[in-house]
């Protein structure tokens, strides 16, 4: 029986916008994907695991020698740093920092340190920001509050009543609970604008609850010949009138 290989995901950058997958030797930044060699990946992983402090060159050498990914040339780590920074492009110039005795990765600003991923999106609740590739949108307070609640319970449904209480606490839902439906409808439109079908990550249990999920919810398509809201009632009344008339004649 094949075992699944666990994939590690490390984040760094000024806005925590760079994702690094050491096992796959891949770095994702925005809409660009960069493939690294095994040497470059191990070099970057050693520094990324020490995020927030300087990784000394001697420590990098020990790790690379241990995995037999480096010759005994001490300057080799400088070559790896140059190649990795070049592959990361403009982001790499700002993110991978060279010090006198080693290297470090720029840690994100405090408000960007917490983020939630779903589909192609990254959501930063503290700054009310949603990003998809190189596009981003700021959220209004009530939209951010509801999306934050859904993100904290990602993969589960949240009752409409719980969401309504959040809008009430903000002074946004005085009239009726329909406010929740309106806010989430606007939120879906924003996600759709950033990425087609993005709003489908917000699933609905009609009339009861909402949830934020990794997989998309199939959309409901309108019927080719839509029936009016009172069509069935009128048909029923017409049949009932025919029955009454026939009974009267009898």
TrEMBL record:
Keywords: DNA-binding. SMART domains: Trans_reg_C. Residues 7-107, 113-214 form the OmpR/PhoB-type domain. The keyword rRNA-binding does not apply. Residues 7-107, 113-214 bind DNA. The keyword Plastid does not apply. SUPFAM superfamilies: C-terminal effector domain of the bipartite response regulators. GO terms for biological process: phosphorelay signal transduction system; regulation of DNA-templated transcription. InterPro entries: OmpR/PhoB-type_DNA-bd, Sig_transdc_resp-reg_C-effctor, WH-like_DNA-bd_sf. This is OmpR/PhoB-type domain-containing protein. One of its GO terms (molecular function) is DNA binding.
